[in-house]
Amino acid sequence: MAGSPELQEAVYGKEPAASIVELKMVREDRFYHFLKRGTDVVVAIFLLTLFLPIIPVVTILIKLDSPGPIFFRQKRVGKNGRIFSFYKFRSMVSGAENVIGALRPLSGVDGPVFKIKNDPRITRVGRFLRRSSLDELPQLLNVIKGEMSIVGPRPNLPSEVSQYLPWQKRRLEVTPGITCFWQIAGRSHIGFQEWMRLDLEYVRKRSYVTDLKIMFKTVPAVIARKGAY
Predict the structure, then answer these.
(1) Tens of pLDDT along 179-201?
(2) Concatenated DSSP letters of 74-100
(3) What contacts 144, CB < 8 A, 6 or more positions away?
(4) Model pTM?
């Protein structure tokens, strides 16, 4: 074949080598996702079984504490911008979303998200559920359905995602989760920009070992209740 040695090397040497590397990365990526998905299902079923005895108690307390549904359902943005229904135990008064506009000036978090430390919309039972993270239990159903993972960036509202800066949208490249670097670092005590930075750090560093480390570190973070409100 005519051409310089550099050209022949490019054709016969570098390209096949690059292809081998890419194929290896694809195989590793598929193995990681297969392992991650299997772990998600096993952990979600285990936790639902573990907490099954207290779920009826939680539902009764919610109904006795304030009128309204037991579960709170909301549209959230998942992987690649896919919208899905996100579940939680209801921790606020019914119709709480209708007064966000009036309360927004009181938000204690920068950026497009809305959080108030002493939110007047939270019920007495709801405050306990949030502090103990028991309000998150129904999201295990989202995990089983494949809409969420045990580990991954928290899914935000479509209205919040629409205000993302271009670099922040990279967090949508992975399946959202129940816990991630943000949860074990302090949750609501962390500003929005740092929250996004931590999520992108996960996107870059994600691996099965990283997921296991985050899961184990989530347990003491939940017990400490830091940033949970």
Answers:
(1) 999 988 877 678 888 999 999 99
(2) EEEE-GGG-EEEEEEE--B-TTGGGGH
(3) 40, 41, 44, 45
(4) 0.82
